[in-house]
Specification:
Layout (H helix, E strand, L loop, with lengths): L1 H16 L3 H4 L17 H5 L7 E2 L7 E5 H4 L7 H5 L5 E2 L11 E2 L7 E5 L2 E2 L19 E7 L13 E7 L7 E10 L5 E13 L2 E23 L14 E26 L2 E23 L14 E26 L2 E24 L9 E25 L4 E26 L22 E24 L3 E18 L4 H4 E18 L4 E12 L10 E6 L2 E4 L7 E14 L3 E24 L7 E24 L4 E19 L2 E3 L4 E2 L1 E11 L4 E10 L2 E5 L2 E7 L2 E10 L3 E8 L5 E8 L3 H6 L4 E9 L2 E9 L1
Parallel strand pairs: 5-8, 23-26
Antiparallel strand pairs: 1-2, 2-7, 3-4, 5-6, 7-8, 9-10, 9-38, 10-11, 11-12, 11-37, 12-13, 13-14, 14-15, 15-16, 16-17, 17-18, 18-19, 19-20, 20-21, 21-24, 22-23, 24-25, 25-26, 26-27, 27-28, 27-30, 29-32, 30-31, 31-34, 32-33, 33-36, 34-35, 35-38, 36-37
Length: about 775
Amino acid sequence: MVANKWLMLGCASLALVSAPAGAQAPAAADDIAKTDGPITQAADIVVIAGIGYRDRTDTPEPVLKYGTEYFQRFEPLTAGDALKRVPSVTFLSDVIESDAPRLRGLPPGYTQILINGERVPGASADRSFFLDRIPAELISSVEIVRSSSARRTGDAVAGTLNINLRDGYELNGGYVRAGGLYYDDKEIEPSLGLVWGGQVGPGRLLLGANLQGRHNPKQKKSLRYGDSPENNADYATDDFDNREDQSDTRDGKDYSFNGSYEIDAGDTNFKLNGFYVKTDRTETERSFEYDDPTATTGPVPIGNLLSDNANVAKIDQENFSVDGKLTQQWAAGKTSVRVGYAQFIEDRNETEYEIGFDVDEGDEPEFEGALTSTAIKDREFSVKLEHEVPLNDSVKFMFGGFYQDKNRRTGIFEAEQEGTGSFVWDQFSQNPTDLATAFDKVEAIDGGDNRIKEKRRDAFALVEGDSGNLKWEAGLRYEHTKVRISDFTVAAAIADQESDYDAFLPSASFKYSLTDHDRIIGSVARTLRRPEFNYLTPAVLEEEVGDSDLLGNPQLGPETAWGFDIGYEHRMGSGGIFGVNVFYRDVKDLIELTNTGEEGSEGEGTFVYQPMNVGDGKVWGVEFDLSTDLGFVGLPNTGIFGNLSLLDSKITDVLGKRRFNDQSKYVYNFGFIQDFPQAGAAFGATYRKQGSAYGRVIAEEVTTRYGADLEIFVEKRIGKTFTIRAVGSNLLNGAKRETFNKFDNLADQIDRDFDEYELESEKAGPVFQIMARYAF
């Protein structure tokens, strides 16, 4: 089926390439009138005639910058999809989804996510932000900031990903985008967009809107064993417990709007930015457990069906951010003040109904239902003040302050149903939801009803110099954080608690040009990672750590890290770049679970664990990247690109040495673009693979492996204002395979006395899309 679709796409592309070139060949970029100087014309975005490269930045910091021309031809749907093509970014998402980026393979909370240079709140307790909620059509560029600077907040142990949205001074004119996506289950989803930028009054305005249909149909299978098999040959005979078949479909729509208005009046500049993203999403799972590795017959005792489960989650999310910045150049230097407000809201209602047929002889099937209702509201108000003073022609001094008031409200409530009944069941024509009744009043789970207020007051100063071949920066940032936790599920005596902590974060970076084509880039910085929200509440969560309990710790402090990056860049031709970078991080005060010595709720052999700042870890690796045309071998219209990151780390915990949880050993991608200027056409491909990842916590271990990802595009440009592309992604039927080792407690984990051993696989089919853009 895949082959047939690509045969049709290939025939279509051949017809497009063979079309008469005289009427359809686009003008070169230099031929398009630049009525507003450096402002990009809409036609330049719609018609990309040439090869896109990674940008070569001139700031002292180690920054990799990628414009839309680097991504656009593969039509990424989201910011997360775009980041799959840049160095050192991995994901631990479901197949064909790219949500929480893991820079250098570290957990998402170690990466700072910025939109237009400013932080935004998200749903996750680890403070990470899901980039699959930002449509790629809103993006002007993506920056990987490998090291930290005093001018930004220090929450960047792994580094920073900055998503720059389009603004009025980057676009003149408008364009529309329209198309559709075809999925493996024959579902079709729309993709529509509109962007316009131009002069309005004394300034320039940009407006954008986007509708993106989202769909992800997956099939999962799990094989579970009662103990650890001694070898693969014993799986299906000696230790088999049950098999689970699951269909998992994620379906939804993203609606987004963004805008900016900027007035540049010489010494005075004013800019207003805003974006809004709304997500309506439904996740539907249907699971069947069988007592046989292959059979799919009806309920026991006559058949093999142990249980029938239906799980539906309805999710409504809203991201909103607005900020204004005023900059004034005057006799004492340049002063800027920025005021911003950002908000994230999530309402999630999840129901799960299960019929259990694995009952004693003569007993009726058991019916269970559960409702989990989650509401998160996270708001941030911030003010940033900067002043810059030139000390001489080559050195300037900058200082300033930052204030942030964060308020996060979380509510997690549950209700349950139970019952038995006598009925004939056909899992192929009936659904457990048919037996559902209304739930009683929901109640908050332990630790699930809380408010966290976080106030930050920062001050920073830095010196920046430019002496021709050498650009450098050195600075110091001081961050003071005060946290107040209110948990409404615990006793009043401990319900409200406060803590505060300080951090001094020095940093320095440089770029030294050896020649016009070669330079060395280096940096050193101290950074931090703030505690996860779910670790701060003073509630006891029963059986959260295997059969043991988890007690939150309101006095947790941040993890801190010293790190350095040292790299080399070589310019190739007019736009190509080859780069190599080595990095190292030494992490202190790592948050690890410690045994309080108190007996857990399940009695003897179980304990109460609490997170504490007691660990140390190290992270290191080497990163290569390349993007260039092949003009040096006589092929100027052939572009190649690729990157390879080799990643490693070490933590010592109560079980011994391991990597940081779920850090892939490597990630690479490479591809090419072949442009046909006379025919107004192009095609290309990209291939991506990330290495296996291992994670270990108390009572559970998981190894995750991903299959490779192949994407291909074919493009036809018609005149100066119209482009149509056909894109195929996940062409290798991406698979995710996980191996779980599960234990009742730490002692059993040390002795390798398994509670359950599970092999889980997940697979999704290819996705095809046709996208057209028209500039006006």
